[in-house]
Amino acid sequence: MLSVSLFFSSSSSSHLLFLSKTLTKKSCFSSLATMSINLNAHAFAGNPIRSKTPKAHDPLSPSSAFQSLKTHLLQNPETTSLSPPPKSPLFKVLPFRKGRPLASSSITGNNDDDVPSWHLGWISLPDCKYFLGKCGVDLTEDSLVYLGSNVEDDVVYWAVDVSGESRLVPELGNKQFCFVELRTLMVATDWSDSIAMGELAIAGHARALLEWHNLSRFCGHCGEKTIPKEAGRRKQCSNESCKKRIYPRVDPVVIMLVIDRENDRALLGRQSRFVPRMWSCLAGFIEPGESLEEAVRRETYEEAGIEVGEVVYHSSQPWPVGPSSIPCQLMVGFFAYAKSLEINVDKEELEDAQWHSREDVRKALAVAEYKKAQKTTAAKVDQMCKGVEKGQSLSADFNVESGELAPMFFPGPFAIAHHLISTWANQDVPTDGVEAGSKQPSSSISNL
């Protein structure tokens, strides 16, 4: 419940004014908090092969699949890369190189304006064994990490890190595969395509797991090497006197749209690494012994000097495209209501922070060509997979139709920041005869 006392002034009329506005915000965003449960999955969420974990005795479970994997790897290597698939279950492997998943691209239809779509570069287990064998590498069960399964198709999915095998690049390139940055695939994904969003979620999960494996090669307790366990879902110290269990880490990050007391302006920040004209929400890592709400208030004050009162949850999003040293970020999104308005920017954290009116934010959202950026990046991925990579500045893809640069823009629909900003900006937009202010804010990705 929103705290009315946070916004009281000394006069009784101000009491009534802020009480009215606070109750309006309460009804508006309590409905938003409820609606967030029914959100279509954010980018990197909604992984279709992790929806249910099979029981231990199931042939597609991590333990059963791992035993079957060892049996398959003991077989003689195939003499051709076009080997038949193994008997049930079918194993598919997704190679990664330096954090980049293997991908391919295709165009459906014969029209000139058809947009290519990327796909994960799954290869069969025998093919993976064959390609690595040509590079002089023996594929072992400890090299593969269990990702999930598809019961209907009787398929188990694995990931493997081949960063040290540069000779694989031309081998796979000859078959029009390419290792593509996950951020590039993120922008190239059609967010209205549930299948494409599912593939992006699989790639994000795989990258996070593989990066964690690279970071946890030694035990933090005794310093001995660690070995994979449970098909790569955890690791264990190899020291018999230690045997410490190590699980994948998750690094929670609060991301918040700070709103003024009148609910008319939002505080947005710029970092020096941002492309020109881009603004976004404030964000920061949660510290030990700190609640989510406390982290929102602390980070907002540290970065912009703004005191925050009420904090309302919106939604969360896995974020595996950060630095490789922090591969498993979880963005936890909030609306935060400011108790003060004067900005004091910490220049070590932000380049700038400003209050922006709802009207200006709404205009920027209306003219930003996110779909154009998605199509342009999808075409870039297609060229890369065909071996004809072309440089492209994505910052130029948010121009308005007139060719003029938009005065500002925000991260695209692949980011939770976009949904925080657009939900607030459009919460009172009238549609189908509904009066402004009475429409519940829509935070559904499918409606963007």
From TrEMBL:
InterPro entries for the chain: NAD-cap_RNA_hydrolase_NudC, NADH_PPase-like_N, NudC-like_C, Nudix_hydrolase, NUDIX_hydrolase-like_dom_sf, NUDIX_hydrolase_CS, NUDIX_hydrolase_dom, Znr_NADH_PPase
A GO BP entry: NADP+ catabolic process
Coiled-coil regions listed in the entry: none
SUPFAM superfamilies in alphabetical order: Nudix
Example of a GO MF term: NADH pyrophosphatase activity
Keywords: Hydrolase, Magnesium, Metal-binding, NAD
Enzymatic class: hydrolase
Family statement drawn from the similarity comment of this UniProt entry: Belongs to the Nudix hydrolase family. NudC subfamily.
UniProt-recorded name of the protein: NAD(+) diphosphatase
Species this chain originates from: Gossypium stocksii
